[in-house]
Amino acid sequence: MPELPDLTVVAEELGRRATGRVVRDASAPTPILVRATPTELEQLQGLTLGAARRRGKFILLPFERDSVEIRVLAVNPMLAGRFWLIPDGSAKVRARTGLRLRFADGGELRYVDREMLGKLYLVAPDELDRIPGWNEMGPDADDPTLTLDAFRQRIRRHPGELKPLLRNPKFVAGIGNAYSDEILWTARLAPFRKRSTLEPDDIDRLYAAMRSVLGDAVGRLRELVPPDIQEQHREFLKVHLRGGEPCPRCGRELRQLGGSEATTFCRTCQPPF
Ligand SMILES: [Zn+2]
After folding, report:
1. Ligand 1 centre from 121 Cα, in Å?
2. Does residue 167 register a pLDDT over 80?
3. Domain span at residue 212?
């Protein structure tokens, strides 16, 4: 599942390579993924793609006329959605292609979703709050205004176990299953520990780990991902899905629970309380 670091780097690369390109036409080969009518897609014709940006687990693609945003495509790729930037639009269209944006220069941006779980919303710039959950979204986990002090205040209002807490977009936006494991291991906090058991220095360590893990991952992904934005890189993660391997810090075998939504942790470095 793409998370904040993955989507940050995809947005940056789209910004570099797709900004300023004019839409020749837009279509939805797999219409079920796109919350827009064919007429609404037709209206993108002739508009210019603005700079892509990220919010939470959404990629936002603005469409502009005379540098004014007219429409915004908000894409939540969920489990398996991927963007493809294709230099030659004649390339074969893959199954489960949710959207094709053909540019006047012959290139193309496509959204392909193997699991068909992603959601694409085409809205006016002032209508983003119509997207389910948009208004309730907390600050991005890397938002500069989310200071340690603001984090301490926010976490007080969110009870429960630490792993679901980190993944809750109402608390902080952009963290999923993989990076929550990495953050908790770095902070030396057990995923099943309750927020109410945390001491002030635990909370401070959790905040520091969140910022450093996400920041380091963005740095690594900037080297690994471009130009192939459809590829997801996780090979540098220290613990997530490495159950049975030695903990990189203490050497004890990492524990892993659950299937596709697995949680990986170290019972020595991340004591239950
Ligand atoms: Zn360990």
Report:
1. 42
2. yes
3. 148-265
